[in-house]
Amino acid sequence: MFARRRPCRRPSPDLRCRPSGRATFAAFAVAVTLLPSLAQAQCGGSFSGFVRGLKDEALAAGYGAATVNSFFNGAAQDPKVLKADRAQGVFQKPFVEFSRRLISNDRIQRGARKSQELNKVFHRIETTYGIDRGVLLAFWAFETDYGAFQGDFNTRNALLTLAHDCRRPDLFRPQVFSALELYARGGFDPARTTGAWAGEIGMVQMLPGDILENGVDADGDGKVSLKTSAPDALMSAAKMLSHLGWQPNQPWLQEVTIPADLDLEETGLLHRKSVADWQADGVRAKSGSFALRKGPAALILPQGHKGPAFIAYPNFDVYFEWNQSFTYVLTAAYFATRLEGASVYDAGRPDAGLSGGEMKQLQKKLQARGHDVGKVDGILGAKTRLAVQKEQARLGLPADAWPTPALLKRL
């Protein structure tokens, strides 16, 4: 299971939900939009006082006292949630190591079996949303090992703990109210609903707000059951990806080879050119032809010009709405291509990278030179990559955005 690192694209993903009955979530959304005191993501202080404030907001939004009191009854901070939130060291691993850790022959074989077992469901998804089954199988595998490990954290308490914590209250505070709305609709048990430490629920790990907006009863039993129904979980995930901007029946990632004289400053997610232009520069599909000729594409070198190389098509960007870790996103997108029949990537012989401690040193040095690298966390994210690329170009090093000990020494 991997926690979402994405922010909400809207103030809350539930603004379009209009539940039945007197207490509407839309009313709460309007209140948050109009009242500055509610719109601000308050956090910290006494946990009991924080919960009282949430209860007052829920009552002001129109929820009944009995519903509010029942939902928050027994609410408690979970220190294990905070510990998990602070210990995401797995994202510090480079792509080759990370992907080899997550992708195994067993997972590929089980993915093939799941594809056959749920062929009708995947065919319906492909017809309705134009999303290849490999994309969903990869998420399903990485998030919960095809539903086997969905997490045992109390979801309400996890959301309250993270909303109270002042690191990302803007993400988790709205999810508390989404969970309350699910409870009001009969689709959430505050005492018994469990999931990942970051509040995601079910086989593909969706936040309560995403369930409200995109939950689908695919098996026709009258309920959206993301924990026990694979059809519901997969169809809901497909609907969410579609709403996030997935272009139907379009590719997302493809392995390529690059020439020795490629202008490396043009690589990376922030630089886009047409596939025809990349071809003119000597970039070639590793096998077959390019999956898409028109439209912008980025050339990704996750471990520099001596390592693997991929062309990222527009659908690749949608992955970052699911998770903001570059390493996770690239691994999930690559695994999806493997499940669709692609060959194992050529790892090449990339230069040695940096340890987590060295990466933090690098980020501090980059900050000292005026670069915005975000939080100094030892993770090679998009901002750090861009800063590295700029410094490499300034120093006359190969500007492939892969930080090495040589670069750290030069800085």
Automatic annotation (TrEMBL):
Record domain Transglycosylase SLT: where: 47-336
Signal sequence bounds: 1-41
MF term (GO), any: peptidoglycan lytic transglycosylase activity
Principal EC category: lyase
Keywords, sorted A to Z: Lyase, Signal
Lyase keyword on record: yes
Keyword Lyase included in the entry's annotation: yes
Protein name according to UniProt: Membrane-bound lytic murein transglycosylase B
Species this chain originates from: Tritonibacter multivorans
